[in-house]
Amino acid sequence: MPSGKICGLTVIDVRFPTSLEQHGSDAMHTDPDYSAAYVIIETDSGMRGFGLTFTVGRGTEIVVCAVEALRPLVLGKSLEEITADFRSFYRLLTSDGQMRWVGPEKGVIHLATAAVLNAVWDLWARAEGKPVWKLLVDMEPEKLVSCIDFRYISDALTEEEALDILRKGQKGKQQREEEMLRDGYPAYTTSCAWLGYTDQQLTQLCSKALAEGWTAFKVKVGAELDDDIRRCRLIRQMIGPDKYLMIDANQRWDVGEAVAWVTHLSEFHPLWIEEPTSPDDILGHAHISKALAPLGIGVASGEQCHNRVMFKQFLQARALQFVQIDSCRVGSVNENLAILIMANKFNVPVCPHAGGVGLCELVQHLILYDYMCVSTSLDKRMCEYVDHLHEHFKNPTLIRNAHYMPPVAPGFSSEMVESSVDKHTYPHGEVWRSMNQL
Q: Among the four residues 317, 333, 380, 416, which has the most C-beta atoms within 10 Å?
């Protein structure tokens, strides 16, 4: 795996004006411009790794500054040095004596850390000539566990327990890998029902999705109850009683409001309510979970959960029935591995969020690994798919029959098309210059 020392780290503010057509709109984020802090690391041997962290427009420049602040911790390191003790490298980035103060392991600094780590994982997989999911699947449990920082979570998951889970997951993994290569991993769609879409758009997009074989649909809710009732009724009538319907409030409600609102929507039999209240309110989620259980409605969250420590507490409090890892907010692969294993221990299915630029490309690797080597189950497990902006990636996500097909190109599927980056760099790219002239 010779790759030389890291001699360069570039970070670019890339933004797509998705707000113009209300793509990605929800009850809390009404005008998102899907964006990314896009990181490129270079080695003196000529190899490069690509990583990103997702944002929704304004504020991306702050993440870019945080990435630049981490640059001195990365330059001069070799891939061999990092991967020989990845846990220590993770701690180097998250435990800097001064930078930690503006976290720790949360917010802008953790988004920046994830972008850098994503680029390192991409570099590692490229050096091995494998996609990231295959790099993980082929890794011995002992090596994989050595990448995880168990600090602050050992009361819920010890290193020994993680090893035991992963060793058990080795049985039958070859068959599961063959299954995924043949059939793919089940997905659900959110692209039909962004909050800013008209009923006509919902109808057209839902009809198209049904014709393409989709069986699980997520609807954005939370702004106006009457609108939510009308839109959920429209989607439920179109998809029928047997397909999954999920609803997502994007943190809009107080705890009591969430219970009351979702009770009104219970006639449409949603599988889950996603982010019903503040993503930091663990006990609030627990209260909502208990209140909605008699209705057969679960609670899903994790899109804006800070780190593995909060996921630990959500699981300990039985506050979630569906764990939604985020491939760029919680420290990338290193931290998500811990979350996947913890969710397995607590017997809570993982159904990743992937609404954002590059998130489908990244998270598919994690969920494939989870099935092949951790959970070994597809029961109530599916991964979000959002049909936007994939054309800007050199190896875009491939969906077939509403399933993620495993990527085959080496890396993390995170390298963007150079012309797309140039055109959408903020604020001087061609797209933004032309918009500013309007």
A: 333
